[in-house]
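ping. complex inputs:
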Amino acid sequence: RKEVEQDPGPFNVPEGATVAFNCTYSNSASQSFFWYRQDCRKEPKLLMSVYSSGNEDGRFTAQLNRASQYISLLIRDSKLSDSATYLCVVNKGSSNTGKLIFGQGTTLQVKP
Amino acid sequence: DGGITQSPKYLFRKEGQNVTLSCEQNLNHDAMYWYRQDPGQGLRLIYYSQIVNDFQKGDIAEGYSVSREKKESFPLTVTSAQKNPTAFYLCASARGTLNYGYTFGSGTRLTVV
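pong. complex structure:
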């Protein structure tokens, strides 16, 4: 089983749609969770951290379910500029130092 | 502004040649990392360092070497022992804890010719 698993997609949605991405992780002791965005041939950039209580940043909402070891990202009112690959990221192990593990990424294509 | 700088942006390597990729950060971050990304693939960890003069192998360290002589710098050497080096190489840095995630450089695209 991969340490971080995502549905690679692609997800093709019209502008204005709501789209949700899911991610599962294998280490129940993990403490840090993130969503990164990566544009084609560019470096990943931090989109948002994910907290147990859930958190929202404008049109983006992230949720964490520790019991199910499941992370989600919801994008409302999709824009053309949201087209990118979204990476689910989790720290390895129980310590909050060390390294992050990246999922394969979910590709989103927003169409006019 | 603080940031992390990778150079060169594009690099071409001949068969049997060693090449070194530069990574410099002025964020005062303790930890630095090297990842490799192949087309359509996720990021795979090559090496990482949490303090000066110390580093650990990641999942795919064979054929690579690193040094961490200064806090700001973490160069990666791709040796001739790395049989399939063509990839996108990403350097990242982080504070002492991972609460804030990584900051990435803009990457080096290495091609074997």
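Chain B has a mean pLDDT of 93.
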